[in-house]
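Re: Re: token formats

Sure, here are both.
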Amino acid sequence: MKIISWNLRNLGATKLANPFTVAVAGRGLGNNVLDYVLNVVMGRPVWAPISSGNPADIFVIIELKSGGHNKGQNANGTAIPTLATIVAAMNTMANNLGVGAQYQYLAAVPLITGRHETVGVIFNQRVLTWNASAVRRDVNNQYINPRTPFSATLTVNATGAQVVVTGVHAPPPSGGAAVRNRPPVNSARAVATVPQLATANQLVMGDYNCTPASTYTNGFGVVVGWNWPGYGTLIPNGTLSSVRLRVAGTQPPPQNYLSAAYDNLLYNFNAGGGAVERVLDTIANARDMTQMPPAPMYPASLVALLNNYNKVSDHLPLYMEF
């Protein structure tokens, strides 16, 4: 099973066609946003150093734009054609690669998670069947603000087992040093109280805007941190995943193009000893596929890579395979 989770920053249908500049287009990374996303999700050879060649079985899109703001209602507006375009492109690529018998995609019905936002869950219907979509409430039966989690319940066709895939998008840090992490940490703690997420076979992923080690000090002087009993991650704490808008020349790599450790993928089942999970640094590992052997584009083309990557997102993708 291969999973990709990616905050694609205000993803709407018109963004997918945004073209890359000549410095990057035609090098094998993709010529526009959709091309780039497909190459990552479908395991194309350009990313062989950091990801397997298997197409994803589950692709979770964080920050998918939608109309409306009433949590739990069906997503609408640009969310629907955007998902349809990505699904169609993934199916076309699977067929062109000759793996259509093993990989064909559908999207779970998306629901509104916050103001003009939803989560997209695309899955390989050869392996999985969608059962239900839901937005989650905390232990007090309240929606989590500003964006509540979205879950898609899937059945593994071969075994009949269920797996619940949940996407989260926490609020960003704000305030002074002692309380800066309060908004995202409180959001993470609230998600951890969702009753439905206390059961087995859960994948909870996305943009937490903090790390499992993040804390803040409350008004009573108590240090408050995460509380996710039963969940684990193979991504080392502090792994940078938030992408800068421009190169910070005074910082060493990778801090000169990455700024914070915000993204994670948590699970509460036995993934086995061969499980792999990481943040995919598609900037440092970019290669010019027009040369043989493929030539590294980083660090010589860092400015061009960063400028074009910002057309895609301000977050790197997450990868898990087991």
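Second one below.
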Amino acid sequence: MWNGKETKGVATKFTGTVLTYGTHFYELHNEGVKITFGGDTYTLGGNAVFDLGCSALAVGQRAIEPRINMLTGSATVKTTHAHEGSISTEEGLFGQVPQSAAMSYFVVRQLHQHSALSLQEKVNWFENYANQPIGMTNVKTLTSVLENVTPYVGTKIGKCRHVHSAKLVTTSSWGHGTAVYHF
């Protein structure tokens, strides 16, 4: 399914083969999908809600690297040395260490609320309203290359860590929560 400005607020079955970014989001219903984006491969689990975007390698640089923003779901990412693909959630930004070797990593985000999100809650997430659904993100490298984690919760928000795995949790709203790293 997809939803956005083009669908005028009505979730619509997606029948194409090319995903676009900027004006809508996608949601999977019990069927995973493999996406080649910016030279990297993202394999998303069967219930992911996500949109496509870009990220930068450092503050002040242009956002030109592929990024998937994920409200909920799981993703296995295979990056290349030339394109450093990332995943962002409410809890942080996850990707390869800049200028490192190609790698693979796994990210899963679970929401704290157990009821299904309403369409309005999904639209609010996509529009980046302040009151986002809180949850937990786990990330781990699937290779010997370390994972780059830029936390949006815990201590030293925005300061990157190079880790084997991490667990980040929002407890009330953006910037409030905990982060545990395994170096």
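The chain has a mean pLDDT of 90. The chain has one helix and 14 strands.
- S.
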